[in-house]
Amino acid sequence: MANSYRPLAVSLGDPAGIGPEVVGKCWDHRDRFGLPPFVAIGDPRSLAAVWDGPLATVDDPREVDSAFDVGLPILSIASVEADLPGHPTVAGAHCSLDALELAVGLARSGSASAVVTGPVSKQQLYGIGFSHPGQTEFVAERCGVSPGNVAMMLAGPTLRTVPVTTHLPLGHVAAALSPSLIEARGRAALRGLQRNFGISDPRLAVAGLNPHAGEGGALGREEIELIIPAIEALRTEGWRVTGPHPADTMFHAGARAQYDAALCMYHDQALIPLKALHFEEGVNITLGLPIVRTAPDHGTAFDIAGQDLADPRAMAAAIRLAAESALHRATLSV
Ligand SMILES: NC(=O)C1=CN([C@@H]2O[C@H](COP(=O)(O)OP(=O)(O)OC[C@H]3O[C@@H](n4cnc5c(N)ncnc54)[C@H](O)[C@@H]3O)[C@@H](O)[C@H]2O)C=CC1
Ligand SMILES: NCC(=O)COP(=O)(O)O
């Protein structure tokens, strides 16, 4: 195996969640899912607790290619205690953060071709002093990119959505919106469609915030004061941008055919349509980074951890999209 070989780095997420189980199942079904070699990063005990497949402990990503057919390659991060599935602990939260840190470091150094992050519990991470809203902003910081210049995209077979605001109380959304933030997220989404998806002239549809996109100002002025100026600024740069669209009528099949991504104003406006249509195969991809980072759309699912109920398809889709995006980025000049 040539030393230039670069596997994908897959952090297991919270050891008490379903991350270890879905990663193990992805290795089981690697041929059916069409997955390239990847290395798991986390506590091997969290895998052994929920999955009876073979592990292949590696010390270096360059060992992954030859190990991959023998067992699931793992770069071991031992938690100070072994978590029980469904019972998150402080030690497990630290372990999930250490795994994320190592995975991002491998991608930044070029030892991994991309990062796929397993689900972490934000509540658990906040409890150990994690000061970022989510993994998206953590990865952005580690890559030296301002959180305002990255975008969280949720991608499925017939829909891609990007929330302008992410993890904050709904009551704070309107105050958090500004033309410059909407514009920056829109630009990150458009460039991401080019760089990660290979769409050369992408189309972005922008949602309104208020019912009926504000009804000409009668139902709210955010469209007039914040969203339309951002759309106009993006159009001035030559991007194909439409809106603001009433959010209730922009996700049916006919509407979805008119755009490559929808820019939404808040978390649930973006994630509800995506998960309603594509929960089993939805992927979260961070746009605007110097590295590729994806994740399954679901969370830790502590309620089903350790019961062999976790569906691995979203994790498989995240691994596949990470590999495809890394390839697009290696072959495109945008
Ligand atoms: N990328 C990440 O790290 C994400 C982390 N989270 C975190 O996950 C925790 C739990 O969040 P929830 O809102 O409850 O969402 P969740 O996705 O963990 O669970 C929602 C429901 O879907 C089910 N479910 C989720 N994934 C499944 C799978 N692969 N197969 C079968 N059933 C599945 C669960 O059992 C549960 O009933 C939160 O602390 C949140 O912060 C949530 C989303 C993404
Ligand atoms: N709801 C999406 C989500 O929680 C993912 O957040 P992140 O940890 O990937 O930033």
Would you mind describing this structure in some detail?
This protein is α/β, with parallel strands linked by helices and 334 residues long. It folds into two domains: 191 residues, Isopropylmalate Dehydrogenase, CATH 3.40.718.10; 132 residues, Isopropylmalate Dehydrogenase, CATH 3.40.718.10. Helix content is 39%, strand content 17%. The protein is built from 13 helices and twelve strands. Strands 3-4-2-1-5-12-11-6-7-10-8-9 form a twelve-stranded mixed beta sheet, with helices on both faces. Strand 11 and strand 12 form a beta hairpin. The longest helix has 20 residues. The model has no long low-confidence stretch (mean pLDDT 95). The structure holds 1,4-dihydronicotinamide adenine dinucleotide (NAI) and the ligand NCC(=O)COP(=O)(O)O. The ligand NCC(=O)COP(=O)(O)O binds next to helix 7. This is 4-hydroxythreonine-4-phosphate dehydrogenase. It is an enzyme of class 1 (oxidoreductase). Keywords: Cobalt, Cytoplasm, Magnesium, Metal-binding, NAD, NADP, Oxidoreductase, Pyridoxine biosynthesis, Zinc.
Report how far the terminal alpha carbons are from each other. Answer: 30 Å
Strand composition percent: 15-25%
Order of helices and strands: EHHEHEHEHEHHEEHHEHEHEHEEH
How many DSSP H or I helices? Answer: 13
CATH domain class name of the largest domain: Alpha Beta
The geometry reads as globular
Structural class: alpha/beta
CA radius of gyration: 20 Å
As laid out across the biggest beta sheet, the strand order is 3-4-2-1-5-12-11-6-7-10-8-9
